């Protein structure tokens, strides 16, 4: 599985961005999918996750993004999205998408994910 993120960029505080994660080489419809982010010198942290159709598309969010970010997936396009609203300077990070082979739920632990994208930079100016 190859994952490619897009949609990052430079925005102002309060703006919105839509990140996309397109999977290729193999369908990820049976995989839990997730978003993580990482700042320089810090550990990668969980942002949001979404389960498979068989798990009713269950979602999970980090407390810091609840109510502002929405994760979704389009299985027909082998794609996951992260709609980010009301962005804050603290959201500035490199955002990574990931696929958890063998997990159908909304998994939050980095070690549960098998495949990772290369990341997309989100910069929020105050």
Explain this structure.
This protein has 126 residues and is an all-beta fold. The protein has strands at residues 2-6, 9-12, 17-24, 32-38, 45-50, 59-61, 69-74, 79-84, 93-100, 115-116, 120-125. The strands form 2 sheets. Strands 2, 4, 5, 6, 9, 10 and 11 form a 7-stranded mixed sheet that branches. Strands 1-3-8-7 form a 4-stranded antiparallel sheet, with no helix packed on it. Strand 4 (32-38) and strand 5 form a beta hairpin.
The tally of strands reads 11
Oligomeric state, counting identical vs distinct chains: single chain
Task: Supply Rg.
Answer: 13 Å
Give the N-to-C terminal Cα separation.
Answer: 37 Å
Question: Describe the biggest sheet?
Answer: 7 strands, mixed
Strand content: over 45%
**What is the H-and-E element order?**
EEEEEEEEEEE
Query: Structural class, from secondary structure content?
Result: mainly beta
Q: Using the alpha-carbon principal axes, give the shape.
A: globular
The helix content, as a percent range, equals under 10%
Task: Quote the average pLDDT.
Answer: 97
Query: Which stretches are low in confidence, meaning pLDDT under 50 for 5 or more residues running?
Result: none
Total helical segments: 0
A few lines on this structure:
With 126 residues, the protein is an all-beta fold. The chain contains no helices and eleven strands.
Which terms summarize this structure?
single chain; 126 residues; mainly beta; seven-stranded mixed sheet; four-stranded antiparallel sheet; globular
